[in-house]
Design goal:
249 residues, alpha/beta, TIM Barrel, 2 domains, 7 helices, 9 strands
């Protein structure tokens, strides 16, 4: 199997098997770099570093006849939506995918709280699907989890309807705030009807409160019950999922 051995190899991980996406390559476009960064003082790799690293590996895998089901774009240090070279990276990754793995899905995972920028939305729309973390129903819980104010929450919800292939990843947790309460789930369902996602994935995880003191995920029985409630309330495909780490350590 092809391996990269250069100093930027941590940008690309895989291929490896995942439960949800089959044989997968994960591309960390914010993997810290010592050189060839977007600007002085930054550790973000330039588009040229990301693209060159990925091209070498993707071409080698294709020539070896190795199957890849999914290419995932993530950000370990900075969200993909905040990378200043996201458009250039995305256009090149899509061209590589089209040429060497034409049947492979190209997905992006983002935790962005701001989709007001048209160029960012247009770039994210180039992916086969946009997977977005979304754990809140009420502005109160949004503010408690993110520190952002209510108007930013309303703007995020409104901007999501621009995507044709939006997948919401909802983590359910009981502490330090509880997003499983009836009023929270009702409010969440109303938000989903505005956002119009293609699919909603519901899991027991700490999501947007990860790292906060006392963070505690909901139980599987709570997850399954809430998934059914959201599906009935919205008419959208809602699937219970088990949390899976998608960026190997």
């Amino acid at each position: 199997m092809a391996k990269t051995k250069d100093a930027t190899s941590q940008i690309l991980h895989g291929p490896y098997e995942t439960r949800r996406f089959g044989r997968t390559i994960t591309i960390d476009i914010s993997a810290p770099q010592l050189g060839l960064v977007v600007e002085r003082g930054s550790s973000l790799p330039r588009a040229s570093v990301v693209v060159t690293t990925c091209a070498r590996q993707i071409i080698a895998l294709s020539k070896e006849g190795i199957k890849v089901d999914t290419i995932l774009v993530v950000g370990s240090e900075t969200d993909p939506a905040d990378h200043p070279d996201l458009r250039e990276i995305t256009e090149n990754l899509r061209a590589l995918r089209d040429k060497w793995f034409s049947r492979t899905k190209l997905l992006v995972f983002t935790k962005t709280r701001d989709l007001s920028n048209y160029d960012v939305r247009a770039t994210l729309a180039m992916y086969s699907a946009v997977h977005l973390e979304f754990d809140w129903g009420t502005a109160k819980n949004w503010t408690s989890a993110t520190g952002e104010k209510g108007p930013a929450f309303a703007a995020l919800v409104d901007d999501c309807h621009h995507f044709d292939h939006l997948v919401l990843e909802v983590s359910l947790f009981r502490a330090p705030i509880d997003n499983t309460a009836a009023n929270e789930i009702t409010a969440m369902g109303k938000k989903f009807q505005v956002m119009k996602p293609q699919e909603i994935l519901v899991m027991c995880a700490t999501g947007s409160v990860t790292g906060k003191k006392g963070a505690k995920a909901a139980t599987k029985s709570q997850r399954d019950k809430i998934a059914d409630q959201l599906a009935e309330a919205t008419g959208i495909s809602v699937q219970p999922e088990d949390y899976e780490v998608l960026l190997p350590s």
